[in-house]
Structures are given as C-alpha cells and as structure tokens.
Amino acid sequence: MTKIYNRTKDKEKRKLLRQNMTDAEKIMWNILRKRQLFNHRFRRQYSIRGFVVDFYCPQIKTAIEIDGDYHLETDAKIYDKERQKLLESLGINFIRFSNDDVFCNISKVINRLKVLLPLSKGEKKRG
Predict the structure, then answer these.
(1) What is the rounded CA–CA span in Å between residue 43 and residue 28?
(2) Could you tell me the residue ranges of all domains in the chain?
(3) Residues 6+ apart with CB under 8 A from 23
(4) How would you class 91 by CB atoms within 10 Å of its CB: exposed for 0-12, middle for 13-18, buried for 19 or more?
(5) How is domain 8-114 classified at the CATH fold level?
(6) What is the DSSP string of 54-93?
(7) Quick check: 38 and 64 in contact, CB under 8 A?
(8) pLDDT tens figures, 41-69
(9) What angle, 0 to 180 degrees and rounded to 10, lies between the N-to-C axes of helices 23-32 and 106-116?
(10) Could you give the CA distance from residue 117 to residue 109 in angstroms, rounded to a whole number?
C-alpha cells in the first residue's frame, strides 16, 4: 500500500510552509494547538497525497483551510475545488475559512467549529 499521509518527499515543502505561515494561519494555530479545541489534536501543514492542508486532525479525518486573497482567483478556485474533491474522496471532511473570517470574527470561526467538529472521546456534550 502506498503511503498517502506526510510522505517523506513532501517533508521540505511542509517544513517551508510551517516556517512561513500567514498571520491568519498563526492565529488559527494558536487556537488549534495542544488540544485546546475540544481535545482534538491538530497537525499543521499536513500532507495528504502530495497536497498540503493547513491543519489536519487524523482522529476525525478533518482538514481546516484558511484561504487568503490568492484563493479568490479563478485558477486557484478551480485548483482548490479539485484538490478538495480528491481529499474528500478519501473520507476527509473539509472546513474552509477566509483570512477575513479569522481576522475579523474569530469567535464566529470557533462557533462554526463547535458545530462542525465531532465530540472527542471523554468530552461532554457541548451546550
């Protein structure tokens, strides 16, 4: 079976992306890291089939993408849609937020994640 997660050949690409995270990604990482959000362990700049997603939680097979202005361009939209479709075919859930969502309304982002992310083991029902 071919390895599809965090392949060695993608290591430098992941490392470079982690070193050059956008400001919006840094804000989101501070929320997701160290199991702070619903006790889910997220990884940053995680590669799946050669594609690197901003954040990924293997336990619940969920990717979170933070999209900047570049993602509004036609070619980028087409690429993102095809990439997301391929990853979803692997059973991965996709959640997208814009940079503006993160900068201007982080509480809305967190509330949206509360709705979309499943409970982790041992977590009490959210209310």
Answers:
(1) 12
(2) 8-114
(3) 99, 103
(4) exposed
(5) Endonuclease; Chain A (3.40.960)
(6) EEEETTTTEEEEEE-GGGGSHHHHHHHHHHHHHHHTTT-E
(7) no
(8) 999 999 999 899 999 999 999 999 999 87
(9) 50
(10) 12
